[in-house]
Design goal:
The structure holds 2 protein chains of 2 kinds. By secondary structure, chain A is of the alpha+beta class. Chain A folds into 2 domains: 2-138, no CATH class; 152-274, no CATH class. In chain A, 53% of the residues lie in helices and 19% in strands. An 8-stranded mixed beta sheet of chain A has the order 4-5-6-7-8-11-10-9. A 3-stranded antiparallel beta sheet of chain A has the order 1-2-3. In chain A, helix 1 crosses helix 2 and helix 3 runs parallel beside helix 5. The longest helix of chain A is centred in the middle third of the chain and has 30 residues, at 116-145. Chain A is globular. The termini of chain A are far apart. The relative contact order of chain A is 0.09. By secondary structure, chain B is α+β, with helices and mostly antiparallel strands. Chain B is 34% helix and 24% strand. Chain B has 2 helices and 6 strands. The longest helix of chain B has 17 residues, at 11-27. Chain B is elongated. The chains are: A alpha+beta, B alpha+beta. The interface between A and B is large, with 64 and 39 residues.
């Protein structure tokens, strides 16, 4: 017996967008990304009913993808000179192994088209996982090179990797997330940490890191901001802005500015301590 | 003709779609354009927020009306959802 169970909210348009995503997700605009983020989020509540019992999609992903491949991948990130190059190569190798692996486990069957959803789910989250940790290692390296004092987990240790926050700076807890991971988190819950670092693409298609932080952290390192609507932030990345998420005020500032202010604060604190 | 979905295409098409995904995702760094990122965030936030409607009983029938500035479509006792579904609220007499 093999039956794919999906949440009632997962509808025709979600099945369509999952296919579209496979074809051309990198070209998606605002509306398509909104649908894709919702679709892959809804699939977290999917499951496969087998003779052995009910297997939720996230459990299948952990057993067949993250479990066997995550540790090696993260080890590779720590040792690679070029994180992006090494990460992509390993990601693609594993991505090609996912479907055969699920087939062998009896969870993907060509004669049962609905089982394609578990393949799509695993591929999507494996890419999110690898991009997320590559960004995290890159930020750790950059903070270190910039002379910022911070505490971070050793991602090679699974229990540390699963910690709800990624690093501590000036006593504030922060998280490093890719754009889509961040939106997925923002969709489903409040943003509980003091700050978030994410990467987006600026107006000249250049990659830009931005930091969202709670007002308290910003007060510690600076002061003035301009209150804007979320849709306006893209045009105002050069200055510190304030937005409202779920009724909570967040400060948006580009990563280099944030880093400079943190560094200044840490140097200032050190000289205070030594006096 | 209906648009294809992940489970209505043929198996060879599915194989091709997976290869296509691995191909573009290998080149993709996961960074969304700023306008897309903040636009989606705004959409998701709006989607999660509650929507208020006014209701009146007129000659025993429910008449709903949207709050000023709301984009929600309503008519009499029907609420039209963005995904095409309709919510129909039927009144019952109190026991």
């Amino acid at each position: 017996m093999l039956q794919v169970l999906l949440p009632a909210e997962f509808r025709e348009q979600h099945r369509r967008i999952v296919l579209e995503f496979a074809w051309r997700g990198h070209e998606f605009g605002r509306n398509e990304w909104r649908q894709a983020i919702v679709a892959f989020d809804l699939l977290k509540n999917g499951a496969i009913l087998t003779d052995r019992g009910l297997l939720p999609f996230p459990v299948i992903y952990r057993q067949h993808v993250e479990g066997p491949y995550a540790d090696d991948f993260i080890e590779l990130l720590y040792t690679a000179a070029r994180i992006d190059v090494a990460g992509v190569s390993r990601w693609a190798t594993v991505a090609r192994e996912i479907r055969p692996r699920l087939t062998e486990a009896g969870l993907f069957r060509p004669d049962l088209p609905s089982t394609r959803l578990i393949v799509a789910y695993c591929l999507y989250w494996w890419r999110s996982f690898t991009l997320g940790y590559a960004l995290e290692v890159e930020i750790q390296r950059d903070l270190q090179a910039s002379g910022i004092r911070f505490q971070a987990h050793d991602l090679r240790r699974r229990e540390e990797r699963l910690s709800p926050f990624d690093l501590v700076v000036l006593g504030y807890k922060g998280d490093i997330k890719t754009s889509t991971y961040f939106l997925q988190a923002a969709r489903t819950r409040m943003l509980p940490h003091d700050f978030y670092i994410t990467r987006i693409r600026g107006q000249q298609r250049t990659r830009t890191l931005v930091v969202f932080m709670q007002a308290e952290m910003w007060r510690t390192i600076d002061g003035e901001t301009v209150l804007v609507l979320l849709e306006q932030v893209a045009d105002m990345l050069s200055q510190a802005t304030r937005i409202i998420h779920e009724g909570v005020e967040l400060i948006v500032v580009d990563y280099e500015t944030w880093k400079a202010k943190v560094y200044h604060r840490q140097v200032h604190d050190t000289s205070d301590e030594s006096e | 003709m209906d648009q294809p979905t992940i489970d209505t295409i043929s198996q060879p098409e599915f194989d091709k779609a997976i290869e296509q995904y691995i191909s573009w995702a290998s080149e993709w760094d996961g960074a969304l354009p700023a306008d897309v990122f903040f636009g989606v965030w705004a959409d998701l936030q709006q989607r999660e927020s509650s929507v208020e409607l006014r209701g009146r009983i007129v000659e025993g029938r429910l008449q709903l009306s949207p709050m000023p500035g709301s984009s929600v479509r309503v008519r009499d006792n029907r609420i039209y959802l963005e995904d095409g579904r309709e919510l129909v609220i039927q009144l019952e007499n109190a026991p």
